Amino acid sequence: MVGNGNIRMRTATESFLLLHPDTEKSSHEVAMSIAACKGVRKVFITSGEVGFVVSTAENHAYNSEKVSRTITKVLGRGKVRIAKGHYVYAKSP
Question: Which domains does the chain have, with CATH numbers?
Answer without folding.
Answer: 7-91 (3.30.70.920)
